[in-house]
Design brief:
The structure is a single chain. By secondary structure, this protein is an alpha+beta fold. It has 10 helices and 6 strands. Helix 4 (113-137) runs antiparallel to helix 8 (216-242), helix 4 runs parallel beside helix 9 (249-264) and helix 5 (141-157) packs parallel to helix 8 (216-242). The longest helix has 27 residues, at 216-242. The N and C termini lie far apart (53 Å). It folds into 2 domains: 5-103, Alpha-Beta Plaits; 108-295, no CATH class.
């Protein structure tokens, strides 16, 4: 039976770090990333992941998996205390809370819950590395471009072909469009934004490092995520093929994409998701039309 809840002292240690949206990236890159790497290198934790949340106060939800909690939980708590204390004193963090981790088994399925958590670990590692690059480059536009390229790479990992990608993004775009009351003014605004960004999107989706060496790190990050995630995705797809997957594969994949977006954007997550899904649906529609023209 899949364990649902983990209290302090169990394998999963769960922190809520209350900080503003603008400082959340700083906390992730300057505190969480080096600390998680140190704990992993010392074999204190085997994986970790984060999400952004508001209850209604904005905070980071941070989860560490400790193979030997009895022996190592004190070190994790001490290291976090030592590292985060400075930010508390400077009011960049205003509250830190340890809580019970309740798994979303209904969302991810009992027999794929641990696989989902490990996928979140590899994704969190990728995103904090990306945020570090973003901080150095000071190019905020790169955030949403990376979001759509990372989504496309995730769909590749799950072996979706172009028509399947197109259908999934059209469905997500429609669903989120309804949430934002996709009336004519909003549609016109998205039409205008896409026209202005279309070439940039197409170039970014299709670039190779030889054409743009500055973005070699993007390819490296995505390739590493693909390599790390491949055995996990294979197990999920095997469940799907054998009829033992407890959640619909499309819904599961939509949840994975949603969490990718959650980790990337500091604020206005639902709005940013809606725009990314809309743009990706349009991009896939264009590529699909070009392919059909070649075939005819």
């Amino acid at each position: 039976m899949t364990q649902r809840s983990f209290i302090t002292g169990d394998h999963w240690l769960y922190y809520k770090i209350y900080t503003g949206p603008k400082t959340s990236d700083l906390i992730l890159t300057q505190v969480i990333k080096p600390l998680a790497e140190l704990l992993a290198n010392n074999q204190v934790i085997s994986q970790w992941f984060f999400i952004r949340y508001a209850d209604p106060h904005h905070h980071l939800r941070l989860r560490f998996y400790l193979p030997n909690p009895t022996k190592d939980i004190g070190e994790v708590i001490q290291q976090l205390y030592a590292t985060l204390g400075v930010y508390l004193e400077e009011d960049l963090i205003w509250k830190i809370q340890i809580d019970t981790y309740d798994r979303e088994i209904e969302r991810y399925g009992a027999n794929t819950m641990a696989l989902a958590e490990t996928l979140f670990y590899h994704e969190s590692s990728m995103i904090v590395q990306f945020l570090e690059y973003l901080e150095a480059l000071q190019d905020e536009e790169l955030r949403w471009l990376f979001a759509i390229k990372a989504t496309d790479a995730l769909l590749d990992g799950f072996r979706l072909d172009l028509p399947q990608k197109k259908t999934l993004m059209e469905n997500l775009s429609f669903s989120y469009g309804q949430e934002f009351n996709m009336a004519k003014p909003l549609k016109r605004q998205l039409d205008k934004q896409y026209r202005e960004s279309r070439k940039k999107i197409e170039d970014f989706m299709e670039f190779v490092p030889e054409q743009n060496p500055d973005f070699q790190f993007i390819i490296d990050l995505l390739n590493q995520r693909q390599e790390d995630s491949k055995p996990l995705i294979e197990q999920i797809l095997m469940h799907h093929q054998e009829g033992t997957l407890q959640k619909d594969l499309g819904n599961l994949l939509s949840s994975f994409i949603h969490m990718l977006m959650n980790r990337l954007f500091k604020s206005k997550n639902r709005l940013n998701e809606m725009v990314c899904y809309n743009f990706l649906a349009r991009y896939y529609k264009t590529v699909y039309a070009k392919q059909q023209n070649v075939l005819t």
